[in-house]
Amino acid sequence: MHFDAEFYVAIGFAIFLAVLFWVGAHSKLTTLIDARINRIKHELAEAERLR
After folding, report:
1. How far apart are CA 4 and CA 50, in angstroms?
2. What does the pLDDT look like over 1-51, one tens digit per residue?
3. Which of 25, 35, 39, 40 has a CA 20 to 30 Å removed from the CA of 50?
């Protein structure tokens, strides 16, 4: 059976995503995104106040 390079790249990427999920990177990423959302909301509120 012959597999192309794309097959091995797809398998490697799937394993990489599984490891990231297992380590808990998704919760860290969510925390970073939530912090950025809160900072932007604060900046918008301050800009509205200064207006």
Report:
1. 59
2. 788 999 999 999 999 999 988 988 888 889 999 999 999 999 999 999 998
3. 35
34/40 Cα distance (integer angstroms): 10
Q: Residues 24-49, buried b or exposed e (16+ Cβ, 10 A)?
A: eeeeeeeeeeeeeeeeeeeeeeeeee
- Would you kindly state where each structural domain of the chain is located, as residue ranges? 27-51
In angstroms, the CA 15 to CA 36 distance is: 29
Report the alpha-carbon angle 35-41-47, nearest 5. Answer: 135
Rounded Cα distance between 41 and 51, Å, is 15
pTM over 0.70: no
